[in-house]
Design brief:
- By secondary structure, the protein is of the alpha/beta class.
- The chain is built from 13 helices and 12 strands.
- A 7-stranded parallel beta sheet has the order 3-2-1-4-5-6-10, sandwiched between helices. Strands 7-9-11 form a 3-stranded mixed beta sheet.
- Helix 9 crosses helix 13.
- The longest helix is centred in the N-terminal third of the chain and has 21 residues.
- The mean pLDDT is 93.
């Protein structure tokens, strides 16, 4: 397969590339094109080529999706906090560039297009448990752009323009590295920073519930989306990826149980109205039934997510 990953220099995009190139990849890679606005990590693999490109440029789509491409994993996006503060740029990257890539895919034959959306498409008055078909009422610009893309991708799939699949990502925790401008960045920071011996500020109430997944599970699930038979998806090609419902209080208690009181005490609460307003509008609990039937994975507990971070990432950060 000839595969493209946009946002390939990012946290998830880079990990998707690593899995695709591994011996355990569920997709046999002939060529892998990694695209981003900054240089993706150089890999010593003849199958890999990198392209640094602004996806909002007029010729980007043709360069990013060359003839012969079989699968596109489109992750590139302006994250939630940035998109909220810069409305025009957020729409240019998150909607306009996606539409341009879809039009390029439309010109090619039988291309599988996997799009990463977000649970941020939901908002307003929500049921206690969100289903794949629950109406989207985003309360932020990032979620609005993603919701528009979902409808567009679903229609491209309905018309046979491309084999589209849309996966809504839970909040990913624990992310390694530095905090980004996503409003949910604290969900990693309140675990990552204490484990690195640093104070962490939590901008929301400890009662807030989040829909979470570990990085490794999300990466595997994004890749799995490309392998699900098209006829199994049915007329609605949007999938809420599996996650677990965890309150901030439980997150910190899990940190305490795994790493001790001294580490957990490094978390300090300091409310941020901007972050709290957006994050509080997001749903905290979903029905995993459909996604699990489609073969997607789910984490067992937040304690195990913390242990996985310690095992896989902490030593590389220290």
């Amino acid at each position: 397969m000839n595969v493209v990953v946009t946002g390939a220099a990012g946290f998830l995009g880079s990990r998707i590339a690593d899995v695709l190139l591994s011996k355990d990849s569920p997709i046999l890679i002939a060529k892998l094109l990694l695209a981003d606005g900054v240089q993706p990590r150089i890999r010593d693999d003849k199958r890999v080529s990198n392209i640094v490109i602004d996806l909002t440029s007029s010729d980007a789509a043709e360069k990013v999706i060359p003839v012969g491409t079989n699968i596109v994993f489109h992750l590139a996006a302006v994250v939630s906090g940035h998109a909220e503060l810069d409305f025009d740029y957020g729409l240019q990257v998150n909607f306009d560039a996606t539409r341009a890539l879809l039009e390029r895919a439309r010109k090619l034959t039988s291309l599988c297009f996997v799009f990463t959306s977000t649970c941020g498409v939901f908002g307003g008055e929500l049921p206690a448990v969100v289903e794949d078909g629950t109406a989207t009422q985003p309360q932020n610009t990032y979620g609005t752009a993603k919701a528009m893309c979902e409808l567009l991708l679903n229609d491209y799939g309905r018309k046979g323009f491309a084999d589209t699949r849309i996966v809504r990502l839970p909040t990913v925790s624990v992310r390694s590295g530095k905090a980004n401008r996503a409003v949910t960045s604290f969900a990693s920071g309140i675990i990552r920073e204490p484990l690195n011996g640093e104070e962490a500020i939590c901008p929301v109430s400890e009662d807030l519930e989040l829909w979470l997944s570990s990085p490794s599970t999300v990466v595997r699930n994004i890749i799995h989306a490309a392998t699900v038979p098209a006829h199994v998806l049915g007329p609605w090609r949007v999938i809420n990826l599996p996650g677990i419902c965890v309150s901030v209080r439980t997150m910190i208690q899990s940190l305490r149980e795994v790493a001790g009181e001294e580490i957990a005490a490094l978390v300090r609460f300091e409310r941020d109205d901007f972050v709290s307003r957006i994050v509080s509008s997001l749903p905290g609990n979903f029905n995993n039934t459909r996604s699990m039937k489609l073969g997607f994975m789910v984490d067992t507990s937040f304690r195990d997510i913390i242990r996985l971070y310690i095992q896989e990432d902490l030593k590389r950060e220290l």
